[in-house]
Design brief:
The protein is α+β, with helices and mostly antiparallel strands. The chain has one helix and ten strands. It is globular, with a radius of gyration of 18 Å. The structure holds FE2/S2 (inorganic) cluster. FE2/S2 (inorganic) cluster is lined by residues 57, 59-62, 74, 76-79, 91-92.
């Protein structure tokens, strides 16, 4: 019986720890135009719509920080992605993950969940 409680308690603690380690980043809306590269994410603004993608290349994890025409370019091995995260050229085969975000109109900020 004691082991059952210990197991349940450990699950609750693990669950709480995961929630507490959630990270987010806040950027001002005013500076966002076109393709905007940040350390862990990319914000694409087009026609007042936002797309937020992970900047971590799905091949081996290099940071994507370059754009060529309408493509996001990985500097390491040449993978490229469309602005919606879909792969154009490999070696990457998986799309860039889309990240959840919220817009705070009062503070004029965009918060990205990392
Ligand atoms: S890490 Fe991006 S192409 Fe290899």
């Amino acid at each position: 019986m004691g082991l059952l409680f210990l197991g349940l308690w450990q699950r609750m603690v693990d669950s709480k720890s995961k929630n507490e380690t959630k990270k987010s980043a806040v950027v001002p809306l005013a500076g966002l135009t076109g393709v905007n590269f940040f350390e862990e994410f990319i914000v694409i603004k087009k026609d007042d719509q936002f797309e937020v993608l992970s900047s971590k290349c799905t091949h081996l994890g290099c940071r994507i920080d370059q754009q060529s025409q309408d493509k996001l370019m990985c500097p390491c091995h040449g993978s490229s992605y469309k602005l919606n995260g879909q792969v154009v050229t490999g070696p990457a085969i998986k799309p860039l993950p889309q990240l959840a975000y919220q817009i705070n109109t009062d503070q004029q900020t965009l918060t990205v969940e990392l």
